[in-house]
């Protein structure tokens, strides 16, 4: 399988265009709300929080909220009150996502995220931990303002799952024998639940019936899982100029992912590795090369693409179905 | 003023007794819920979370929820559904409190809390950060289960305030000229808002009218402020065998508190100190001695006791008014 790097920001921009003018308009309002949430408490606190939010990337989760809510292409389906609630729901999901990024950067002592200095790098561990806590609390404040207790329930479950996933990852660290089921469970907690919640929140705000809500949630969950699997492939496959980080950072953290899980069955020497001995970027890159040599990357990619196909197949027949399919494709295309 | 150390756990136990049999019964259920929340995900995650919750102390905040809700002494005012919601609300406040303790211990690299090893000490920085995030998310999950959006609103505001207070403290670190207003604002964010929220949540669940809710909230806020002021006095005054930590830990963190703010006006040599040079426990203890010599500790204590008196004076005439007064006294008595 050839690697054709794609610019993810440009890709999402084209998705947004396909959705018609109202989706980008509302995404613009999400952006304003995110900045307001960050700067509310003055430059000292607001500046690092803003930097994090700005570095947060493609706004894929807010986009899912809006599409699952059925925000259509026409101006005449605008309802100011519903729009405000949607913007809040979309922002709350991104705030939770940003909070986890800030905490992850603290834990990994990451100097850069998407080419920007992290809060940890510019303001230290203590500020970054508090900024993450603050973004997290703001997420609940925004969502509470929508007046939907069910929405808060969805986000609190997702937040529990995120923390649980992080705990699971840390407790499984360095264990090269981690079962594949446990790996998938962890991906579900760490990534898929927030994608699922974005779709479920959108569907809820859009007034979708129960079966459609469930269908959209399942779609989000599947593309979230695929997203994480492909992220894990990318960590092994690189190239660094595309990913913005060296090959093998997961290995250096002790995080065992699907490529290694597949590869250890094919190469007994990998199964026998003591991951605690892998302490340099060079050693990590060497293991990545051996993982790739087993064909495990293609196998892991294929599993992810199957999930994307299932996500598309199971999509309920909603107004923005075509654009949701494009979102699914964009998750797959990042790496193929 | 003489120092008569009081056992706070025994003191709270006597408060609970004064409240009649139903309050301890419900506090027992809060305890069960807290343990369940912690252990839900197996020993790896649950054990450190449990340890933190167990080390959390006196359950003053859950007690305030129950008293503000008007849980009376008689068995015949039990309403199973209301009781469950109250237990959840009380647990949610304690979960938020526990979450901040876990994160504080990470930031301060504290090996012990109330004589128990911290999650940071036993499981490391990464696990402790994730455990804090998890407890925080669980708080919202528990409170959402009460079905009250207003309750979630109260807790999300309190959580934002806690993080904001932490950020303010870090951004003001080492600044010996910090204005007293800013110090009090920080205490409000870091401590008083959660006490206020505990009372407001209880009043809400107990169905109190608006003016009583506000009155109970103001009571909580005042004793919370007094609690923090007296905590800051204790950090300077010790004795370590009473506080469980060396004198002057705030100074070593760069945290400027009321005793130093008062003392710097009375002793120009203190105002001229460069706090970044205070890097050893001995140096911190020496500064604490100079703060005490100015009489600043008595002045700070007097301000706290005034707040406690105002809290009692402003208490609405609710069923457990007498016990709430005892709670206020217990805050004052810890240190007098």
Which features would summarize this protein structure in a list?
mainly alpha, disordered N terminus, Farnesyl Diphosphate Synthase, homodimer, about 75% helix
Instruction: State the shape of chain A.
Output: globular
How would you characterize the largest beta sheet of chain A? 2 strands, antiparallel
The chain-level structural class of chain A is mainly alpha
Q: Biggest sheet of chain A, strands in spatial order?
A: 1-2
Q: Within the CATH hierarchy, at the fold level, what is the topology of chain A?
A: Farnesyl Diphosphate Synthase
Per CATH, the architecture of chain A is Orthogonal Bundle
N→C terminal distance of chain A:
7 Å
Largest interface, C-beta closer than 8 angstroms, per-chain residues: A-B, 43 and 43 residues
The count of domains of chain A is: 1
Low-pLDDT stretches of chain A are 1-5
CATH class of chain A: Mainly Alpha
Count of helical stretches of chain A: 16
Would you tell me the overall average pLDDT of chain A?
87
Please provide a written account of the structure.
The structure is a homodimer. By secondary structure, chain A is mainly α. Chain A is about 75% helix and about 0% strand. The first copy, chain A, has 16 helices and two strands. Chain A has helices at about 10-20, 20-40, 40-55, 60-70, 80-110, 120-145, 150-170, 180-205, 210-235, 240-245, 250-255, 260-265, 270, 280-295, 295-315, 320-335; strands at about 110-115, 115. In chain A, helix 12 packs across helix 15. Residues about 1-5 of chain A have low confidence and may be disordered. The interface between A and B is large, with 43 and 43 residues.
